[in-house]
């Protein structure tokens, strides 16, 4: 079924890297008016680049392979044409059939995509039925849901394959297939499931592959599912200073904890933050550590029940929590195969191939290692595709082990044209394994990984700069860090992990049963409660005067880095103008584009909190 590519396969305009964004409106794309109402309800002013390029091609019936950066609006780019096509079909036929299958790598993402369908189809809900196959319902319930032939089925490849095997899901009338996060689905170990889906795919199904990077995995999927796809490689033209400001801090293993304490206690980061750590224990170690200073956070990892995970993300998006500590475990399980070419290398290969029409390089077989999912949820993923809203900062407390992961992680901030910041802690080789209690295996090659990241980012014109903490000033806090770390023993971590799991399982059961009937009550369950280590040291919650640098926060960082602003692009001009008008009315100066630098606005009075 795999086809050899030649240059004619790729239509010239689509294969070009598009540099600029033309003024296109959703209405000009020819979408159903009910969909336009749904879009307007979400306050989308105009299509993003990937939307304005991919939607017309998809509406024409073309296969599309689109690479666009994280947070650029790929979900709407594939959903809108699908819903439009369902609405069109309903005008001539009322016979129910499943005409679209959307495959995503994780259950969280499946939930998110299902919600997006519901939002876009809010004004035509009775004509568009979508179901999420990753929900934990009994086989009988799932069968009965599928028996009604919902228009759109959203699933992980594993769930789709399972239901195809049991004949619960019929692809007989399928017209559209989407593989979202196409660069990641194979690394989740779904290769056999995807082969299984490909086997029963009827002829002529339109395929859309969406991806943040073009990797050999995307090539494999293209060979398996696409016919003559239009290839979009989209680089958004960014204004200076927009996107993610990337910083790196070289530090010792225990200093990661010290810096985290200083960053959060002195509020060096303004806004919401996702902290990525290397494994599950690390989540609890850091949470317990921060708790000692009165800094609350909630945890996301593959061990927690899916309902809790989804709830945490929803609450975070509603600004209930400021800090999420997430473990990025797929790396630890070995998904980041060293021998596998990095995305930038593969992109070069793809470019070459498009120019001279040569056959593509043999895509590496996904390694067996990837199937190793332990007892954790294989369909878990937070750095991939989850739409965390208004994240000011991604803190790589533990550096990922590949630049591809780094790209996905930092893509959780600066979404939909906002700005954001990424700080990565890097342990130099000579400091690795020098502080056993805070050491983690994945830091072994931090410097090598950083070099790759810097190279990769440079290719897209982005810099990774040092974040200069004045370690002399930070040193004043070292004693307190030591005190707090000593209380976070291995036993305390293990107990906290068990306790949290038990609590979340109970909440999850409650969530499932109770909130089906009372969706409004969800906010009563908080996930950032204190885990309480054995030794409670309440004095640590306060920062005494003498510890603070005389110059305020700027004394800690030198004052020249660290801006984290949430700024909308021109897409939100109207909103900005409204805000400015409102502010004028209140006599305040707002909306003039003045950036608030949290490092320069440290209020000494608020510090003792
Ligand atoms: N046209 C638009 N105008 C304003 N906001 C938009 C628009 N399209 C999408 N968004 C918002 O942008 C955010 C990111 O969108 P989405 O999750 O689809 O990005 P993505 O490209 O799929 O990201 P990732 O690669 O991380 O999965 C969402 O909050 C979405 O609601």
TrEMBL record:
Chain intervals with Basic residues compositional bias: 578-592
**Reaction(s) catalyzed by this protein?**
ATP + H2O = ADP + phosphate + H(+)
Pfam family for this entry, one:
Helicase_C
- Give the main EC class: hydrolase
Q: Which keywords does this Swiss-Prot/TrEMBL entry list?
A: ATP-binding, Helicase, Hydrolase, Nucleotide-binding, Nucleus, Ribosome biogenesis, RNA-binding
- In this chain the Helicase C-terminal domain maps to 243-472
Domain of life of the organism encoding this protein:
Eukaryota
Supply the SUPFAM superfamilies for this chain.
P-loop containing nucleoside triphosphate hydrolases
Query: Subcellular location, in the record's words?
Result: Nucleus
What is the name attached to this protein's record? RNA helicase
């Amino acid at each position: 079924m795999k086809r050899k590519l030649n240059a004619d396969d790729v239509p010239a305009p689509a294969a070009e890297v598009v540099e600029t964004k033309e003024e296109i409106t959703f209405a000009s794309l020819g979408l159903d008016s009910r969909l336009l109402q749904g879009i307007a309800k979400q306050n989308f002013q105009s299509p993003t680049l990937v939307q304005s390029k991919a939607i017309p091609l998809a509406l024409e019936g073309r296969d599309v392979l689109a690479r666009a950066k994280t947070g650029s609006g790929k979900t709407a780019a594939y959903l809108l044409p699908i819903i439009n096509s369902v609405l069109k079909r309903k005008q001539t036929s009322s016979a129910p059939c499943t005409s679209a299958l959307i495959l995503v790598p994780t259950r969280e993402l499946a939930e998110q995509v299902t919600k997006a369908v519901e939002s876009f189809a809010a004004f035509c809900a009775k004509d568009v039925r979508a179901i999420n196959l990753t929900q934990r319902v009994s086989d009988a319930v799932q069968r009965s849901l599928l028996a009604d032939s919902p228009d759109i089925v959203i699933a992980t490849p594993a769930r789709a394959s399972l239901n195809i095997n049991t004949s619960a899901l019929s692809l007989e009338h399928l017209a559209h297939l989407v593989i979202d996060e196409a660069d990641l689905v194979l690394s989740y170990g779904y290769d056999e499931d995807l082969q299984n889906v490909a086997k029963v795919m009827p002829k002529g199904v339109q395929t859309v592959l969406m991806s943040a990077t073009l990797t050999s995995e995307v090539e494999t999927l293209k060979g398996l599912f696409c016919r003559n796809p239009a290839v979009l490689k989209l680089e958004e033209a960014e204004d200076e200073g927009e996107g993610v400001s990337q910083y790196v801090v070289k530090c010792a293993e225990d200093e990661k904890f010290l810096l985290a304490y200083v960053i959060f206690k002195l509020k060096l980061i303004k806004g919401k933050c996702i902290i990525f750590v290397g494994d599950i224990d690390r989540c609890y170690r850091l949470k317990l550590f921060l708790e000692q200073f009165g800094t609350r956070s909630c945890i996301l990892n593959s061990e927690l029940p899916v309902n809790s995970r989804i709830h945490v993300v929803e609450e975070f998006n509603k600004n209930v929590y400021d800090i999420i500590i997430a473990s990025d475990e797929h790396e630890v399980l070995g998904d980041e195969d060293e021998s596998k070419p990095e995305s930038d290398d593969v992109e070069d290969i793809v470019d070459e191939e498009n120019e001279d029409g040569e056959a593509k390089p043999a895509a590496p077989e996904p390694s067996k290692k990837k199937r190793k999912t332990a007892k954790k949820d294989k369909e878990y993923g937070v750095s991939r595709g989850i739409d965390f809203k208004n994240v000011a900062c991604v803190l790589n407390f533990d550096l990922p082990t590949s630049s591809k992961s780094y790209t996905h992680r930092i893509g959780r901030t600066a979404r939909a044209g906002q700005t954001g910041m990424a700080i990565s802690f890097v342990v130099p080789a000579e400091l690795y394994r020098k502080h056993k209690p805070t050491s983690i295996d994945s830091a072994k090659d931090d410097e090598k990984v950083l070099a790759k990241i810097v190279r990769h980012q440079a290719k897209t014109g982005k810099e990774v700069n040092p974040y200069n903490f004045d370690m002399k000033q930070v040193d004043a806090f070292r004693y307190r860090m030591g005190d707090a770390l000593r209380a976070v023993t291995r036993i305390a971590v293990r107990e906290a992990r068990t306790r949290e799991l038990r609590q979340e399982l109970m909440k999850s059961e409650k969530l499932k049963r109770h909130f089906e009937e009372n969706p409004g009550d969800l906010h009563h369950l908080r996930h950032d409660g204190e885990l309480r280590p054995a030794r409670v040291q309440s004095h640590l919650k306060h920062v005494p005067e003498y510890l603070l640098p005389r110059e305020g926060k700027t004394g800690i960082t030198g004052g020249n880095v660290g801006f984290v602003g949430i700024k909308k692009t021109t897409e939100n001009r109207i909103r900005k103008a409204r805000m400015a008008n409102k502010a004028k009315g209140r006599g305040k100066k707002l909306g003039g584009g003045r950036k608030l630098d949290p490092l320069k606005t440290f209020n000494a009075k608020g510090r003792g909190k």
